[in-house]
């Protein structure tokens, strides 16, 4: 079978080393003679996997012992609830930036638990930029932002100085570049964009952040229980965390600086072609263009199906834009190789030549 270039937005491309290790572990996990998916999560072989995954997160992000790392379930979407449930009192206020669909959902959930102050929004221009002028009130409980807006293709390259605990949904750009994790009180990321398969969510929590709300929190939704249970308060996503651990090993072997350089090279290559090619155009503010999700459209919308058909013939997969925004989206997550971007660029050039000929 010839290579399929996987531009899917999530679940998404993973490093081959993680796939190979998973296949092996499904047959014989860590020389136990048993499959990874039929052993106890409390076996010493599996406990070592979970421990290594948490340690790799700390190591890669340079986190000190003032942070706890857990792998939970319920996706990033459950974090939209767990964050305010654990951190926002009914009479308190949380600040949010509304930079896209996921941020809007986070805001909607927070309103179930307390007051929400949307300090900035880019909804006025269909979320095509990152809001930059805003102040974060010092008396709110926390400030929440979304580092990469997966659906619109905008990314926050700078984070504000927040006088209150800063919380970030990094589902789609975590481990894509170095950043100062010490600025954040809580970071969460669904695994299936940039660090593993669907089924687990990484949550990083600064010590001392919890224990300030007065509401009663159901046990499974209380961070404290998962931290004390070392991600085994209940049965963890055994398989998903295993794949994350191997993906994290791969990320560590490259390093975040080199990963950023790779991601800059890939995204520059594609954005340059979008800007040069007479058929296509970008959809978001240039300075906020995401390196992870590249959104673009055909100037003549009627050509879209033809272009997607050609993409399919050229083994380019996953380019249709999100159903809410349409157009095209190429997701260039960490594991995507530059050869895949080159193949896309060549197909865009081929399509342009074809259209110019028929005119
Ligand atoms: C995909 C995504 C989510 C939702 O993740 P689920 O794991 O499906 O709940 C939330 N935030 C961002 C930024 C995302 O990209």
Polypeptide structure, described:
This protein has helices at residues 16-27, 44-60, 75-87, 101-110, 223-228, 238-254, 256-276, 304-313, 338-358; strands spanning 5-6, 67-72, 93-98, 115-121, 142-146, 148-149, 154-155, 166-169, 186-190, 201-206, 280-282, 293-298, 316-317, 328-331. The chain is an alpha/beta fold and 359 residues long. It has a seven-stranded mixed β-sheet with strand order 2-10-9-8-5-3-4, sandwiched between helices. A three-stranded antiparallel β-sheet has the order 11-12-14, with helices on one face. Helix 1 runs antiparallel to helix 6 (238-254) and helix 3 packs parallel to helix 4. The model has no long low-confidence stretch (mean pLDDT 97). The protein binds pyridoxal-5'-phosphate. Pyridoxal-5'-phosphate binds at residues 10, 75-77, 102, 146, 150, 169, 171-172, 190, 193.
Question: What can be said about this structure in brief?
Answer:
The protein has 359 residues and is α/β, with parallel strands linked by helices. The chain contains 9 helices and 14 strands.
């Amino acid at each position: 079978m010839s290579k399929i270039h996987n531009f899917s937005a999530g679940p998404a491309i993973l490093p081959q080393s993680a796939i190979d290790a998973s296949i092996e572990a499904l047959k014989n996990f860590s020389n136990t003679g048993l499959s990874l998916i039929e052993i106890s999560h409390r076996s010493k072989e599996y406990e070592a996997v979970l421990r290594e995954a948490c340690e790799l997160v700390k190591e890669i992000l340079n986190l000190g012992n003032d942070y706890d790392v857990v792998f939970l379930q319920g996706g990033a979407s459950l974090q939209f609830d767990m964050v305010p449930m654990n951190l926002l009192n009914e009479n308190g206020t949380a600040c949010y930036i509304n930079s896209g669909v996921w941020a809007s959902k986070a805001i909607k959930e927070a309103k179930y638990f307390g007051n929400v102050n949307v300090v900035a929004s880019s909804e006025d221009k269909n979320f095509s930029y990152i809001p930059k002028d805003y102040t974060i009130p010092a008396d709110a409980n926390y400030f929440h932002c979304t580092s990469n807006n997966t659906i619109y293709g905008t990314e926050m390259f700078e984070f504000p100085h927040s006088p209150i605990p800063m919380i970030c949904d990094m589902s789609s750009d975590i481990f894509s570049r170095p950043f100062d994790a010490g600025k954040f009180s809580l970071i969460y990321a669904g695994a299936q964009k940039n660090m593993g398969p669907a089924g687990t969510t990484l949550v990083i929590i600064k010590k001392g952040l919890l224990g300030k709300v007065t509401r009663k929190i159901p046990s499974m939704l209380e961070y404290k229980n998962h931290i004390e249970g070392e991600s085994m308060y209940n049965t963890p996503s055994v398989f998903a965390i295993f794949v994350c651990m191997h993906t994290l090993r791969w990320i560590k072997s490259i390093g975040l600086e080199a990963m950023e350089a790779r991601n800059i090279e890939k995204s520059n290559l594609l954005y340059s072609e979008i800007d040069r090619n007479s058929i296509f155009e970008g959809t978001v503010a240039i300075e906020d263009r995401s390196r992870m999700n590249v959104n673009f459209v055909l100037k003549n919308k009627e050509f879209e199906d033809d272009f997607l058909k050609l993409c399919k013939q050229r083994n380019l997969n996953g380019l249709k834009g999100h159903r809410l925004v349409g157009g095209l989206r190429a997701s260039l997550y960490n594991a995507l190789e530059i050869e895949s971007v080159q193949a896309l660029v060549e197909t865009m050039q081929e399509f342009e030549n074809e259209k110019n000929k028929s005119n």
